[in-house]
Amino acid sequence: METATRLAQEGTLLSDRDTGVTLEVHDAPQCSAVNDILARVGDKWSVRVVMALADGSLRFNQLRRGIPGISQRMLTRTLRGLERDGLVSRAVTPSVPPRVDYALTRLGTSLCDPVARLGNWAIANIGQVEAARAAFDAGQDQTKL
């Protein structure tokens, strides 16, 4: 991959020197793959499941009780998606009834730190975000008059 040299769109930084982050030009298939992964790890329930499993494996009902508001169907779908993407493992212990435990894989565990950092950022900045929303909404109300 090469460093971006094209002009940035309005409202974006003009160079990687402004942030200390290297901007890279990606081809369309890579961008599509990145978007797909970000959609999985960025959805509300996947983040909650990953963080619930951060301290160790849990059974399905333990997960369900630990994540308020999630339905059985949504938890099942979320776990299947995370398992498909290699972030969660599913272990079935033959018994009556069968015991099924879910745990983060090494890849899933590597996601915990970035997710926790993003959550901490949200907590630290929620006041500013709410203030910006209120100011924006007040401005929108003025334009309707």
Task: Explain what the structure shows.
The chain is mainly alpha-helical. It has two domains: about 40 residues, no CATH class; about 100 residues, Arc Repressor Mutant, subunit A, CATH 1.10.10. Helix content is about 55%, strand content about 10%. A hairpin with a 5-residue loop joins β2 and β3. It is extended and about 65 Å long. The N terminus is likely disordered.
What CATH architecture of the largest domain do you see? Orthogonal Bundle
Radius of gyration: 20 Å
Oligomeric state as shown? single chain
The arrangement of helices and strands along the chain is HHEHHEEH
Strand content: 5-15%
Query: Which regions contain 5 or more consecutive residues with pLDDT less than 50?
Result: 1-16
> What general form does the structure show?
extended
Query: In CATH, what is the class of the largest domain?
Result: Mainly Alpha
Biggest sheet, strands in spatial order? Answer: 1-3-2
Helix content: 55-70%
Secondary-structure content class:
mainly alpha
Overall pLDDT score? 84
CATH topology of the largest domain: Arc Repressor Mutant, subunit A
Q: First CA to last CA: what distance?
A: 50 Å
Number of helices: 5
Domain module count: 2
| Total beta strands | 3
What summary fits the major beta sheet? 3 strands, antiparallel
Superfamily (CATH H level) name of the largest domain: Winged helix-like DNA-binding domain superfamily/Winged helix DNA-binding domain
Summarize the structure.
The protein has 145 residues and is mainly alpha-helical.
Keywords:
145 residues; mainly alpha; Arc Repressor Mutant, subunit A; 2 domains; 3-stranded antiparallel beta sheet; 57% helix; disordered N terminus
